[in-house]
Amino acid sequence: MDLSPVLISLKTSVISISFTFFLGIWAARAVIALKSERAKAILDGVLTLPLVLPPTVAGFFLLYIFGVKRPIGKLLLAVFSYKIVFTWQATVLAAVVISFPLMYRSARGAFELVDENVLNAARTLGIPERKVFWKILMPMAMPGVLSGGVLAFARGLGEFGATAMIAGNIAGKTRTLPLAIYSEVAAGDMEGAGKYVIIIVAISLLIVAGMNVAATGKKKFS
């Protein structure tokens, strides 16, 4: 059994969540801080769009932006002699784009549930805004933020459509677990596909179970 799809998927998911987690938190805080409700609604729609678009459409946009015949793709190729399409880095890019809305919306919902009076009380005591965010808001919103991180990680692990569009299905290079399952089914090897399915289901269950145990322990000792 070829284990490269397992390693590629785990590496992709770990690196993508490293970006998505902090980008989602930053974006959620930035949208909440906007004064204009119209600007807030527009920006929220743009940031949430990858969640409702078919992944292949999101992959098409990524391919259109980063293709070697497109401005950004040409720039990367000319300046750095590097192309992102059909590389392992493209799997990370696809996972970040597709999983980002889950992290963003979870973080925003968690932040909005925090009592604003608590934050205002801290501000009246002269606590700097940065400390208010990291010392008060983040700890109070942490369960929702971590849940968003788990969802985003799992979404990145299961990403298929956008990855196939911009990264391709190259064995040992860009073939993630979902692509491996598709390839085995297409080849008529249902037993091989079943093994990959068991692995991805087991990983997902372990992640969710670990988060549930951590959340239970936090409630018990809080």
From TrEMBL:
Gene3D superfamilies: MetI-like (1.10.3720.10)
Signal sequence bounds: none
CDD domains: TM_PBP2
Molecular-function GO terms, alphabetical: molybdate ion transmembrane transporter activity
Superkingdom as given in the UniProt entry: Bacteria
InterPro entries for this protein: MetI-like (IPR000515), MetI-like_sf (IPR035906), ModB_ABC (IPR011867)
Entry's localization field: Cell membrane
Keywords: Cell membrane, Membrane, Molybdenum, Transmembrane, Transmembrane helix, Transport
Chief localization: membrane
Gene Ontology terms: cellular component: plasma membrane
Residues covered by the ABC transmembrane type-1 domain: 6-209
Transmembrane segments: 12-34, 46-66, 86-104, 132-154, 196-215
Membrane topology summary: Multi-pass membrane protein
PANTHER family: MOLYBDENUM TRANSPORT SYSTEM PERMEASE PROTEIN MODB
Its job: Part of the binding-protein-dependent transport system for molybdenum; probably responsible for the translocation of the substrate across the membrane.
Protein family according to the UniProt entry: Belongs to the binding-protein-dependent transport system permease family. CysTW subfamily.
Protein name: Molybdenum transport system permease
